[in-house]
Amino acid sequence: MTTDADGIVGIYHSTAERQMIKERVSDALPTAAVLSPRANALLVQSADGKMHFWHIDNEHPEVSIKSLWQKVWYESYPKPDYIWQSSSANSDFEPKYSLTPLVFGTLKAAFYAMLVAMPLALMGAIYTAYFMAPRMRQYVKPSIEIMGALPTVILGFLAGLWLAPFMEEHLAGLFVMLMIIPVGVMLFAFAWQFVPKAIAHNLSGGWDAALLIPIILLSGWFAFKVSVPLEAFLFHGSLRDWFKTELGIGYDQRNALVVGVAMGFAVIPTIFSIAEDAIFSVPKHLTVGSLALGATPWQTMVRVVLLTASPGIFSAVMIGFGRAVGETMIVLMATGNTPVMDLSVFQGLRTLAANIAVEMPESEVDSTHYRVLFLAALVLFMFTFVFNTLAEVIRQRLREKYSSL
């Protein structure tokens, strides 16, 4: 608070970095002024001996565009930073309401979830709708769609209490599995051509994919078995310690990798179901005509079926992305719920939805904290609204472009 010789008092909030009040409180020269501890009252003594008492109605001084979205240099911090720290035993501390770490965490969780879900869901939808035997499809498609009915609180519970410790203990095995399983599948495909024709023809078209299930399971088991001596030989016993000592990358047990796997598992049924319906709904005369003109099944899929079904596939991806952005329970239970801004897949995060779920019950009604949580909900709504609107525009253009096929 400052006063000048003209009796004008100005109140400036250093955290929010904005001028709150600038008012004339006395016509005479002020000689002394004091601000109440709660900054809700002002007492000014002027040169003519009069005392002037002012009530200050300034309920939310710590909030501004800068404090919500830009770096702020808080007390006792070495440099300006994005900080969310709202809880305290009283209201005398300096609250930190930066929404930037929460938006960053929301996008980070959605990115890793889509990174896991999109390849599996879309490739599975393509094979199920176009290459799989009809009888096998009758079992596969409902089974995957039933996965979508699994409560996310169960997935979050399993991710936090089982998957996170498992991935921490078998981190090297997970990376080895990503290399071993594709090699195992390719070796099986290479060996399949040497299978006697009588045996191969007994399996109707599309059913041969069921033989890959034990191959994938065995490859995964082999990857975890071979990862133990491989980790000891290449990384001196622990991959996590090697990341820390050699690359300076820390490892939190509940991190973005756990969220990506768990939330990807939750998003897969949504993307798969919509994309599979879109591909399966492509008119048969298009595929039959393409094959009749000499195109291979794969050429027909890439140049005819996928283009025709692209609006539906794009809608599936965007709906899955919206599901990942708005997910609450999985990110609440499997991320550590720490509002940090770190691109590392081994660090935790906090999303807008999880933050609202955690802090809304304990926030004081009509307080700054309470209002900022409502603002976070509005930001989440606007975020999904803008993305869904853009997705609808792109989908309509894809439909107009490829509707003539």
Helix content: 55-70%
Q: Number of DSSP helices?
A: 14
Strand content: 5-15%
Strand order across the largest sheet: 1-2-3
CATH homologous superfamily classification of the largest domain: MetI-like
Do you know the CATH topology of the largest domain? Answer: MetI-like fold
Distance between the termini: 71 Å
**Helix/strand-derived class?**
mainly alpha
Instruction: Give the second-level CATH assignment, the architecture of the largest domain.
Output: Orthogonal Bundle
- Radius of gyration computed on alpha carbons: 30 Å
Rounded mean pLDDT is 84
Kindly provide the name of the CATH class of the largest domain: Mainly Alpha
Description:
By secondary structure, the chain is mainly α. It has 2 domains: 2-55, no CATH class; 100-402, Orthogonal Bundle (MetI-like fold), CATH 1.10.3720.10. The protein is built from 14 helices and 8 strands. A 3-stranded antiparallel β-sheet has the order 1-2-3, with no helix packed on it. Strands 4-5-6 form a 3-stranded antiparallel β-sheet, with no helix packed on it. The chain has a two-stranded antiparallel ribbon with strand order 7-8. Helix 2 (100-131) runs antiparallel to helix 11 (297-326) and helix 5 (171-192) crosses helix 7.
What distinguishing features does this structure have?
9% strand, mainly alpha, three-stranded antiparallel β-sheet, 60% helix, MetI-like fold, elongated, 8 strands, 405 residues
